[in-house]
Amino acid sequence: MVQLTKLVKTSGCAAKLPVGKLEEVLSSIKMERKENLLVGFETSDDALVYDLEDGRVLIETVDFFPPVADDPYTFGAISAANSISDIYAMGGEPSVAMNITLFPSCMDLGILKNIILGARDKAMEAGVVIAGGHTISDESIKFGLAVTGFAQKDRFWRNCGAHDGDVLVLTKKIGVGIINMASKADECSSSSKVEALSSMLTLNKRARDIAIKYDVHAATDITGFSLLGHIYEMASSSSLSFDLDFSSVPYIKEAIDAARLGFIPSGAYSNREYLEDKVENRSGLKREEEDILFDPQTSGGLALAMNEEDALSFIAEFGSPARIIGTFSRRRDKTIYF
């Protein structure tokens, strides 16, 4: 059996272009805007939002990456869950999608079939219809979806808009990228590998469906830019700072040991480099604890900024592993303190 993760250098969202390099390119290009385009790339939101002028907005996103699981069906399902997540992170309801496929023409086509089947079944779980796509021959496998969703114009979320005093709820454990690295080297337990795969396979649908009952001021999902990176985008675009309580952050326990042994995705280093002057470790966290905070996630959880009363009600309904992990406050010298 072909082990897909052994065919690539980086897996999942850890393969993303470093955010500093992407920012350098995008900041030098003036993009055209349409009046109906309510959200573009200016605040690093998870998807574009287009006003349909009937009380609804269209939400559009695209995501693809190299294998993050050895089993083709599981890889396809994780990739679909990750792609669809951006719609949930905007408070939207995903509807239709198209496959994006890069696949070696010399490889067993049964592998490609199972990738697509995994994506189809996960999309069906989300109520999404995959209606085509595009495939090219490439030396390495990459797969994902372009996803379209909808929301009411006055109900969609952005990653800006957090209030001074808001708390932040995280709905999934982090440490997935580190566990994936250790797994590729056969240096993690089967239980941690299963825990990471289960997390990546879990849709953010239920989290979104519960959260829309409350007054969510800002939202995002935690993917390749790491927990600290995505909180940075949320806090900075809201002109606030954030105090993170590491003791409240849910993470896969074995990730600490794996990080200590050096199983760090390359994306974690670029995340750390970009955020170095924007965050401050005031609590004396160890290097391996910091590594978890900079770890690129794949199909991570939602991060929801809301008042504490709503946050506690959400957690009571959603259950574990959702937790309050910190508080937004007035802008200070650094964007994040932990």
From TrEMBL:
<keyword id="KW-0067">ATP-binding</keyword>
<feature type="binding site" description="in other chain">
    <location>
        <position position="86"/>
    </location>
    <ligand>
        <name>ATP</name>
    </ligand>
</feature>
<feature type="binding site" description="in other chain">
    <location>
        <position position="63"/>
    </location>
    <ligand>
        <name>ATP</name>
    </ligand>
</feature>
<feature type="domain" description="PurM-like N-terminal">
    <location>
        <begin position="45"/>
        <end position="150"/>
    </location>
</feature>
<dbReference type="Pfam" id="PF00586">
    <property type="entry name" value="AIRS"/>
</dbReference>
<feature type="binding site">
    <location>
        <position position="221"/>
    </location>
    <ligand>
        <name>Mg(2+)</name>
    </ligand>
</feature>
<comment type="similarity">
    <text>Belongs to the selenophosphate synthase 1 family. Class I subfamily.</text>
</comment>
<keyword id="KW-0711">Selenium</keyword>
<feature type="binding site">
    <location>
        <begin position="133"/>
        <end position="135"/>
    </location>
    <ligand>
        <name>ATP</name>
    </ligand>
</feature>
<comment type="subunit">
    <text>Homodimer.</text>
</comment>
<dbReference type="InterPro" id="IPR010918">
    <property type="entry name" value="PurM-like_C_dom"/>
</dbReference>
<dbReference type="GO" id="GO:0005737">
    <property type="term" value="C:cytoplasm"/>
</dbReference>
<feature type="site" description="Important for catalytic activity">
    <location>
        <position position="16"/>
    </location>
</feature>
<dbReference type="GO" id="GO:0000287">
    <property type="term" value="F:magnesium ion binding"/>
</dbReference>
<dbReference type="InterPro" id="IPR036921">
    <property type="entry name" value="PurM-like_N_sf"/>
</dbReference>
<keyword id="KW-0808">Transferase</keyword>
<protein>
    <recommendedName>
        <fullName>Selenide, water dikinase</fullName>
        <ecNumber>2.7.9.3</ecNumber>
    </recommendedName>
</protein>
<feature type="binding site" description="in other chain">
    <location>
        <begin position="43"/>
        <end position="45"/>
    </location>
    <ligand>
        <name>ATP</name>
    </ligand>
</feature>
<dbReference type="GO" id="GO:0004756">
    <property type="term" value="F:selenide, water dikinase activity"/>
</dbReference>
<dbReference type="GO" id="GO:0016260">
    <property type="term" value="P:selenocysteine biosynthetic process"/>
</dbReference>
<dbReference type="InterPro" id="IPR036676">
    <property type="entry name" value="PurM-like_C_sf"/>
</dbReference>
<feature type="active site">
    <location>
        <position position="13"/>
    </location>
</feature>
<comment type="function">
    <text>Synthesizes selenophosphate from selenide and ATP.</text>
</comment>
<feature type="binding site">
    <location>
        <position position="46"/>
    </location>
    <ligand>
        <name>Mg(2+)</name>
    </ligand>
</feature>
<keyword id="KW-0479">Metal-binding</keyword>
<feature type="domain" description="PurM-like C-terminal">
    <location>
        <begin position="164"/>
        <end position="335"/>
    </location>
</feature>
<feature type="binding site" description="in other chain">
    <location>
        <position position="16"/>
    </location>
    <ligand>
        <name>ATP</name>
    </ligand>
</feature>
<dbReference type="InterPro" id="IPR004536">
    <property type="entry name" value="SPS/SelD"/>
</dbReference>
<feature type="binding site">
    <location>
        <position position="86"/>
    </location>
    <ligand>
        <name>Mg(2+)</name>
    </ligand>
</feature>
<dbReference type="GO" id="GO:0005524">
    <property type="term" value="F:ATP binding"/>
</dbReference>
<dbReference type="InterPro" id="IPR023061">
    <property type="entry name" value="SelD_I"/>
</dbReference>
<keyword id="KW-0418">Kinase</keyword>
<keyword id="KW-0547">Nucleotide-binding</keyword>
<keyword id="KW-0460">Magnesium</keyword>
<dbReference type="InterPro" id="IPR016188">
    <property type="entry name" value="PurM-like_N"/>
</dbReference>
<dbReference type="Pfam" id="PF02769">
    <property type="entry name" value="AIRS_C"/>
</dbReference>
